[in-house]
Write a structure and sequence with these properties.
Layout (H helix, E strand, L loop, with lengths): L31 H4 L7 H16 L2 E2 L2 E2 L15 H16 L1
Antiparallel strand pairs: 1-2
């Protein structure tokens, strides 16, 4: 992947590059600080990303069929910027507690 490559005389990628689909990114990577590349990307962020993707897919399909748009509660995440998406994810988690 050229985006994460490094030059021969550099030690390697820094690990704080922001890559990925905002809808599936870990909450730590959706902060303003992370958008300024001030948050190091960790392996746990990949696991959290998988969980977000799993939730999104699970709530988008039923028995293998795509649900109607009005029945897909997480579709809006794809249209938001990183910080707004983070807030919507926090709201989603809060709603699960209710």
């Amino acid at each position: 992947d050229h985006d994460l490559s490094s030059l021969a005389d550099e030690p390697g990628p820094r690990g704080n590059e922001r890559t990925g689909t905002v809808s599936f990114m870990a909450l730590d990577l959706l902060t303003a600080k992370a958008q300024r590349d001030e948050v190091k990307r960790l392996y746990r962020h990949d696991l959290e990303s998988f969980i977000w993707a799993f939730a999104w897919i699970s709530l988008r399909y039923e028995n293998g069929a795509l649900l109607p748009a009005e029945s897909r509660p997480l579709d809006d995440w794809a249209t938001l910027d990183a910080v707004a998406c983070r807030q919507e994810k926090l709201n989603f988690l809060d709603d699960l507690e209710d």
